[in-house]
Amino acid sequence: MTSTASGRRESPSMKPFLIIWIGQAFSLLGSQLVQFALVWWLTRTTGSATMLALATLAALLPQILIGPFAGALVDRWSRRRVMIVADIAIALATLGLAVLFWLNVAQVWNIYVLLLIRATGAAFHWPAMQASTPLMVPQKHLSRVAGLNQTLSGLAGILIPPLGALAIEVLPMQGVLAIDVVTALPAIVPLLFIAIPQPARTITPEAAGRKPSLWADMREGLRFMLSWKALMMLSVVGVMINMLGRAAASLAPILIMQHFKGGALQLGWWQSAAGAGMVIGGLILGIWGGFRRRVVTQMLALILDGLVIIGIGLSPNEAFRLALVLIFFVGILEAIVMGVGGAMFQTIIPPEVQGRVFSLLMSVSQGLAPLGLLVAGPIADALGVSFWYVLTGIMIAVMGASGLLVPAIVHIEDRAYQRPSPHTSSGS
Asked: Do both 364 and 260 map to the same domain?
């Protein structure tokens, strides 16, 4: 199955995509600023860890539960319209909450409703954007676009906390919420005028003359993943990295306080160093693009990432500056790992099933992330946070080295044309 047969198109110009991307970047920064403000408002108003945990749950559950359905619908519907509706729905919900604050009648449960709506919109918007990218960007530039995305993510990590704190101090809450509504406009307007190619659906003889059910589409996406062993192995690696990385990040305050004897200032430096590393890593990937075999780039970066994390775990108590340098390099390497991995999946997975595959991966990653926290907490309490960092680094480095030793993974891009048809039946 060639890329042409799968409906992938090589765009003669990246200008339409870049116009959409810039608008989406404004919207993302505005949304993250408002997300920061909402969490801080809950913290200041309730002072309850339980309330904050519920807010986190409200932001995660839709992506876990709705994700597989959203992916199947994204592959059925116009992806441009999905993004338009998602952006408008989030903007209207945010505007509604701003009105409640303006009337001075906003309550805590209103925040949870908005977080649920925002997460539901993101569950549709993210796979639609990811699946649209390879239809508008030539394959040779996908890694560079992924680098831009990682740079944006790193900049958000650096800029959003201080900008969010400043916005809360100088604006009423309804004014802060209005920022999200205003920044949604640059995201919505270009989508009204710029066409996004829609991949043709392959129809099997047995399905001719009838539209497959939503459940059938979901099973098809899962069957596609399960039938391609190399893709499954890479997906497992991605989920494991997400679990380990989230757990390590959640334990960073304890590492700084107990091991390095630091405080809030040192935590701020830590987060800024990691964010700056992501920016640099995204820029490196955006300019370089990685080796010809993207998977080799990813696995080598994983090995180096694991070794650097081991270095953090082994850093002496008085070597906080060394740890800052190391977490900066972790940011660089993880930007490359995530960016290259996303670009590779966009290249090797047929466009007509990308919505389902990306949503499944997102749902599994989000669903299993708490498991990593449940395992990391007791181990760190018993053996120290430094031990968890060393263990995490070893596991990540081993996964990277193992990937280079598995021929099916090393050659996954070369053999993409041999991938199973997204409609191949497994006998069920």
From this structure: yes
